[in-house]
Amino acid sequence: MLTNRRYARMIRMGLVLSGFLSLEVSAALGMSTGPTDNLYLDMDLSQLMQVTITSVSKKPQTLGNTPAAVFVISQEDIRRSGATSIAEALAMAPGIQVSQISSSKWSISSRGFSGFISNKLLVLIDGRSVYSPVYSGVFWDAQTTMLEDIDRIEVIRGPGGTIWGANAVNGVINIITKKAQDTQGGLLRAGFGTQERLQGAVRYGTKINEDAFARFYAMGNDRESNRLKESGLDAGDSWNTMQTGFRADGVVGTRNEWTLQGDLFRNQGDQILFPYWLSTAPYVVSKHTDFDDNGGNLLAGWQHRFGEHERLSLQMYYDYAARDEDFYNISYRTFDAAVQYETRLGARHDITAGAGFRHIRGDNEATFQSYFPSRTDEVFSLFLQDAFHLIPDRLIITVGSKYEHTPYTGSEWQPSGKLLWAPSEHHSYWASIVRAVRTPSVLEDGGTVTFSNLPPPYGMGYVASSGSEDFAAETALSYELGYRWQPYQSFSFDLALFYTEYDDLYTFRPRPSERGLDLVFTNGVAGHNYGAEVAMTWKPKSWLSLAGTYSYLQSSYKPDTIVSPLDQNISDLFEKMQPMHQFGLRSSLDLTHNWQLNAWLRYTDSFTGGNVTSISAELPVDGSVDGSADLSVNLIWKPRPDMECMLAGQNLLNSGQLYYNSEHLTPPTEIKRGVFGKIIWRF
C-alpha cells in the first residue's frame, strides 16, 4: 500500500504537470492566449454540456438535461490520453474500475463486482451487445475497434435495464463510431514501442454518390509480454490482434437514413494457466499455452422520420464469436432485431416504445476443466417510456418499464422513475429509482468449471462449480441523486450519489456427487453499496484544459444463511473486490499551434482481487492488491496539417505494477512501464 508520504508526492506531481508546469512552459515559449486550431480546446464548456447523447433513453438528448449518471469520453479525449485500447480509455470515466490483468486481459466494472468477467456491466458497440451469453461479461481483448473511428463513448453508471434490458445492472457502456461521411479520405497509422511493439492501421473513406458514403479499414497490434509478480520471470502473455471492416451510411430523400457496417477479427496470444487441473497425476500443473479468438459481425440500421418529433427505427445484427483455449472451447451465433418508435403526444409527453428479439446459438466443446452445454436460446422484450414535461425544459418526469422473457428465468420486469429539474441554465438536479436484473449465463444454468482435483491428503479431491436450473435472476434496486453546475463557461461540475440494494446474488451450496463435490450455483447473498462520483472540468486559459474525477464506494453483503464457509467467503469477496477511492487528473495543453502536451495521473485504492482458486480454498492465494498511482504523459507534434506524431510514456511511476491479482487462471502479473511512438498521416 502506498504510504501517506508517497501518496502526497503523487498528488503533487500531478498538480505540477497539470498546472504549474503548463503555465510556466507556456510563458517560456511565448504562447498565445488566443484561440487555437484545436476544436476541443476552442469549444467552451457550455457547448460541451450540450453534446448530444443517445444511450440513456435510446434517443437524442443533451448531456446537461439527462437524468442519469452519464459521462462522455470524446474522440479528442481518446486522442490526447495516449490510450491504445478501449479498455484503457474507459479509465477516464468516474466510477469505472479499470484494472489490467495481463497484456490482453482487463477487469472493468462499474460500482463494484470487478472481475475478468464482470457480469453486471453491459457493453455495446453502436448498439450491438458484446456481452458474452456463454460466460457472462465481456472479453475485452476481442473489442479492438479502431480508436480513430470512435466518435464518443457514452458511459452510464447505474442501472439501464429499462432501456437496454437484462445485465445492465451497474452500468452501460456504448461505444459509438463515426459516420462514414465524417471519415472521408485516407488515414495511415504506424507505431512501435517497448510494450506496444508494433501497431498499424489503414482506413479509407469514399463517397458512393451524393447521398451515400463508405469507409474501409484494417488494423493490427502486437504487444510484448509482462512479468510474473512472484518470480520476476516472463509472464508469457504476449498478444496480437488483427481486424478489418467497413461502414456505409446514406439518406433516401429527406426522411430516411440507413447504415450498414461489419467487422472481422482474429485475436491471438500466449498465456500461462495456473492452476491447470488434470484428471490424473500430477493433477495440477502450470501450463504455458495460447488462445485463439475470432469472429465477425454485420449490422444494419434504418430510420424514418415522420415529422420533427416522430420517427421509427429498426436495427438488426448478426454476430459470431469463437474462442479456443485449453480451458474451454466456446462459440456462439447471435441474431438480434429491435424496433423503436418515438412520438410526441400534445405538448408535454415524449413517448418511446420498442420491441426486440434475440436468437442465440451456442456450440461448445467440453474439456476436463469446463463444460458449457450447447443450446439455443431466444429472448423477447418490450419497453415503454414517457417523458412528461411538467414545465417545458425545466421539470421533466420520466417513467417506464421493460418486459423481458428469457429461457432461464421467464418473465422479468425492469421499471424506472426519473425526475429532472433545471431551475436555470447553470443548474440541474436529477433523481431516479430503477430496478434491474442480471439473468443467468449458460455456466450458471447448466455448466461446470473444475475448481480442484487434488486427492487426499493433499486436498479435497475433485471439486467443481455446477450450474442449476433453479438459479434465479440477481436483482438490484438503485436510488440515485445528481447535480450538474456550470457557473461559468470555463468550469463545470457533475455529482452523482447512489445507494443500491442487491438481492439473490450468487453463492455456492456443496452437493456430493459421483465425481466428488459439486458447488452448485445458488441465490443466497444480499446487501447494498453506496457512494459518490464527481467529474469536474476547468479551462483557465483557451490553450489549457483540466479534467478531474473522483469516486467513493462502500459495500456490505451478507449470506441469507450460512451452510458452508463459502457463503461468508463470497460475501466478504463482494465487499472487498473494488477500491474505496479512485481519482484521476488530466491536463491538455497547447504549447504552440502545433505542439501539445498531455498528462494523466490516476490513483486506485487498495482492494482484494479474487479467483476460483481462492474460493475453492485450494492453493490459497493472497488476493490483496496495493493502492497504485499511474502517470501517463505524451507529446504530440503536428509538423503539417495532415500529419501527427506522438511520443508517449505509460505507467511512468512504476517499473512494474500489479493491478489485479490472479484473476481466473492467470498468475499474478505485473504490467510493465511502456514507451511508444506513433505517426498518423491523413491523405
TrEMBL record:
Alphabetical keyword list:
Cell outer membrane, Membrane, Receptor, Signal, TonB box, Transmembrane, Transmembrane beta strand, Transport
GO terms for MF: siderophore uptake transmembrane transporter activity
* UniProt GO BP: siderophore transmembrane transport
Pfam family name, one = Plug
Where is the protein found, in the record's own terms?
Cell outer membrane
Q: Which residues form the signal peptide?
A: 1-27
Q: Name any GO cellular component annotation.
A: cell outer membrane
Name the predominant localization.
membrane
Q: Where is the TonB-dependent receptor plug domain?
A: 65-172
Q: Does the keyword Ribonucleoprotein apply?
A: no
Q: How does it sit in the membrane?
A: Multi-pass membrane protein
State the family named in the UniProt similarity comment for this chain.
Belongs to the TonB-dependent receptor family.
Q: What is this protein called?
A: TonB-dependent receptor
